[in-house]
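Forwarding the complex inputs:
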Amino acid sequence: MQVDLALIHYPVCNRNREIIGSAVTNLDLHDIARAGRTFGIDNYYIVTPFADQQQLVREILEHWQTGYGAGYNVHRKEALGIIRLCDDVAGLYEEVTAKWRKRPIVLATSAADPENALAYDEARTMILAGEPVLILFGTGWGMAPELLAEVDRLLPPIIGTGNYNHLSVRSAAAIILDRLLGDRC
Amino acid sequence: MQVDLALIHYPVCNRNREIIGSAVTNLDLHDIARAGRTFGIDNYYIVTPFADQQQLVREILEHWQTGYGAGYNVHRKEALGIIRLCDDVAGLYEEVTAKWRKRPIVLATSAADPENALAYDEARTMILAGEPVLILFGTGWGMAPELLAEVDRLLPPIIGTGNYNHLSVRSAAAIILDRLLGDRC
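Prediction (whole assembly, two chains):
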């Protein structure tokens, strides 16, 4: 299994659909790393061009990797160990392509329901067949349209029982990992 | 569909398996309310006996229900609208029993893998048949053993691809709601 996740902080939209860079959120690191580790994700990339935000990520990781947190909670150390930093999406693509010696299939989720969405079962089959896959998640009000336009396939939005489609990125990531990689019981 | 969630802050365990009351976490309110609203949950109960913690919950709800947040993000207002406060588990059981005019089937998750766990598919069938169901989630290092012992059935732990079983309660709740109530695509 060759699956990576990336959480994109730039370029994303704000509530007025303007392109911005969003701030890193501590619980986005923890929750998605823990879910990633649960489901066997290779790396979880935090993509931000901002030096102060990268420094914040490094400080959080240091606390849990080698600082007080490392002894306090070894499970957290293990989960956060899959996190890597990237300056931008181009660098992210280079890094995963070098790692797998092949450009992975890049998937993304969008709140809009795309016409040619890749069904979760199809994506699951692709992953189990050994295809490298990189899944992008947006922050803020979602990834910039130009970024979404260049991914290989979009995944369908998470549908519940109505038309409320406003999950946190932490919840959406957990559900998507379970749909793609979870035990079917 | 008659499904409620409850997040238990007392009685729960700390890392040394002692019984404690845990602190309310802002993102537990937001993330689980948004997931609950997505999947058609009736109410999401925050169970804590501590007056200061109840006051914190009220202030957060007020901000998003009638304060600045209500105008800033109507989707958040809608999600947080399903939250209710309860002093303790006994009061919780009374409230949901009165609401559904019947005591619901009480389900809980535990990190341990119980022998007689109710499979997610069976629980899903039960819910779709119209049975009232209350799902308990623990905070801290999990619900107290005496509380787990009195629920009707335990759900299996979320299994990923290995033996790492340390999801956040926010991620676990999202995955469990999707397994029980999500669209099967």
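Residues 106 and 152 of chain B are 5 Å apart (CA to CA).
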